């Protein structure tokens, strides 16, 4: 029998996406909040964000998924304070012995030496250049980056080495780095994806509690585009029965803000994400839950999620085909590309370390 922690009262988790800190799949014990026995009213403390440091031996993570457009990623942080309830990366916190729920968004891990490690790996003689993807697991421009500046340090290394990079984010903090990004864009070394899942400010606040508003993210698309940085809008995820009516309005608003391409993915609920999502639906949209879950089961062969390559991002069946057709037609009508042009790899030039012997020619 699987045991779950009791949900934490909404007033004690304001600004958070998940409602509990259920133990991860590898844990044999669980944590449960209990009364201390005193018959006295007492306010429970709010959930603050805790950040610890990690010093991994390598930074570049190589992937071999045939349905991805990249083969390597880096992550300045583990966990994400944005708190998006649907985040498919939540189960990765189980590897740390933590909850995919509230721990994922309140117990973060930073990698302060990431830039130095990145430079070291890029200097290796065996390294073969190809675009690095950042933001595929957790957001590099989540709130903690404002003070830690780890993403900016990594970006400075990529800039100096003339290494191509594709960035995905919901964070408007990326505007801080326009000085670096615009110069990289002039050399075709960078492209940016801005995720917009809804234009409804109330739904955004409930579903993505610490993410900037949709209007603010549209303004970021405009600022990046005006600086010459190619931007694609990412509708990820499209949620059946909840955000699917917004496909055309989102694409139109993004195009008007300066986006030149658009991609999409269906809602994914792997491992611990599925019960977190269902609990969130029960709390916020109980009258829509049955319809949303029915469509998800229909798209995944009777399961809540199918992790098979080429099926996990889009699903299958009539509804999935309908969404794909709507996106294709809207992109064509709006002049949006399916993908941004390939990045430049031939300009890569590792910078020498102090003490390196320089070439004479």
List keywords for this structure.
alpha/beta; TIM Barrel; 7-stranded mixed sheet; 3-stranded mixed sheet; 10 strands; globular
How much strand content do the residues show?
Answer: 5-15%
Order of helices and strands: EEEEHEHEHHEHEHHEHEHHH
Please report the distance between the alpha carbons of the first and last residues: 69 Å
Indicate the low-confidence ranges by residue numbers: none
The number of domains is 1
Quaternary structure state of the chains depicted: single chain
Helix content: 25-40%
Q: How is this structure best described in words?
A:
Helix 7 (214-226) runs parallel beside helix 8 (247-257) and helix 8 (247-257) runs parallel beside helix 11 (318-334). The protein has helices spanning 102-106, 114-123, 145-148, 150-161, 178-186, 201-207, 214-226, 247-257, 273-284, 286-299, 318-334; strands spanning 50-53, 61-62, 72-74, 77-78, 107-110, 132-134, 165-169, 190-195, 231-238, 261-266. The chain has one domain: TIM Barrel (Alpha-Beta Barrel), CATH 3.20.20. With 361 residues, it is an alpha/beta fold. It is built from eleven helices and ten strands. The model has no long low-confidence stretch (mean pLDDT 91).
